[in-house]
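User: Fold both of these, please.

Assistant: Here is the first one.
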Amino acid sequence: MLTQQPTNLKKLTYISALIALGIVLNFLEPPIFSFIPGIRIGFANIVSVLGLLMFGPLEAITIAFFRTTLGSVIKGALNPIQFWTSFAGGIFAATVMAAIFKFLKNNFSIVGISIIGGISNNLAQFLVIIAITRNNAFWYYLPLLLFFGGLSGWVIGILSQLIYNKMKTIQKTI
């Protein structure tokens, strides 16, 4: 945890700011791998990892829930496939990362937890697509999605750790 929160209002403010930042990051993310459908770095997932580090598992899942839901509403992305892939990926990744953080924290670095989160995100999104389309041809795409999920989880984990360390440094000087 970053600090002991003296009031619930301060904690709520931080969590709200993380949700808002996640929505903004989702809007601003460039389609780096636009030539590969469904592949993105997922910069908005940084806020779920930061929520996990700052507040704990339940708060990280809460951040993912509101970030994906509100982000979809604000974007106007209420297309069922877009919404459910985003929602399922964000919630499943946050839940898996929260479980690892809670029960196996000593066995994984935050980068390792984030890699598993990236893979979990893409797996959940893939399963939603399979459930909706019932197209078995997508199974051939799964290894590529899992690889890029791990790669993006690695990037998100490194960035999250850097940001978290900087936040701790800044907090010490205040």
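And the second sequence with its predicted structure:
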Amino acid sequence: MPDKVSDIPVFVLCGGLGTRLREETEVRPKPMVPVGNRPLLWHIMRTYSHHGFHRFILCLGYRAEVIKEYFLNYATMNSDFTIDLMTNSQTVHSIDHEDNWEVTLAYTGELAMTGARVSRAAAKYLGDARHFAVTYGDGVTDANLGEEFRFHLEQGRKGTVLGVNPPSRFGELKVEAAKVEEFSEKPDFADNWINGGYFFFHRDFLSYLSPDESCVLERDPLVRLARDGQLSMFQHRGFWACVDTQRDLEHLNKLWASGQASWAV
């Protein structure tokens, strides 16, 4: 039976402390930091949904209650509504029916690392799905995730990572005998790829993970997967950005405000 995109669970890592963005994360987890008038997490989920993925398992940790409250009150937070104070009833006037999401909020521990969070959540909520997606709660992209999933199936390996090559944050100088031959501000490095998150895995990958809180997805599990010849890379040369610092957040907000947010769908 073919793997239907709509049946693929997407595990979103939402539990980290976000220490490099402490200005924003004192009171909320980093995925809830706003870009425009919506949390970063909403933007990520909207991208998946645009490509047909509608099942989400949010791997919670630090300030889990903030994300739980957001989704418990999602309809009223994103719509006009009327409250009848006499009967304590409410009527929501304009629900966005494009957000046909099934969202599971899974507490995976306060201090668990990324691999442990996926392992713990998958043990409860993967079900009988043969494949699943994993992403971080702080990166946005305009990559075609449906195409990446089809690529993952065609390659037949246990894992696929979105490879991205964003421009350098710093200018590159090409120097010959102390003379600058070429100056390039924030150049693209066409042959240098980095982990952009947005993974797809066969369920067999779970054997590489551990529920122990010290299990880091990007270390032993993915290193071993690559050494075993079981990790593919889906190349994406379009837009990708992650939010590590206040500067990163300001950049995304400027793109959103100016109508240049290429990840918007």
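The chain has eight helices and 16 strands.
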